[in-house]
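Researcher: Re-running this chain for the archive, since the previous output was lost when a drive failed. Same request as before.
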Amino acid sequence: MTLPTGSMKLAYRIDEAVKATGLGRTFLYERIARGELKSIKVGGRRLILHSDLVEFLTNFNSGFVLM
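Model: Regenerated structure tokens:
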């Protein structure tokens, strides 16, 4: 596993993942609920690891079109 360098984050809050990807908040929560996007709970916060977000985007193959 390669750790992000520089200003890249190790994990994103949902709102940060929305800004980083351009995907919608509801869309991300739906994918988490379906088990398509991994996330973790730390305290009261839901986080998406950088590596899991990259993997999700790389393997994304449903009927949706990303613009």
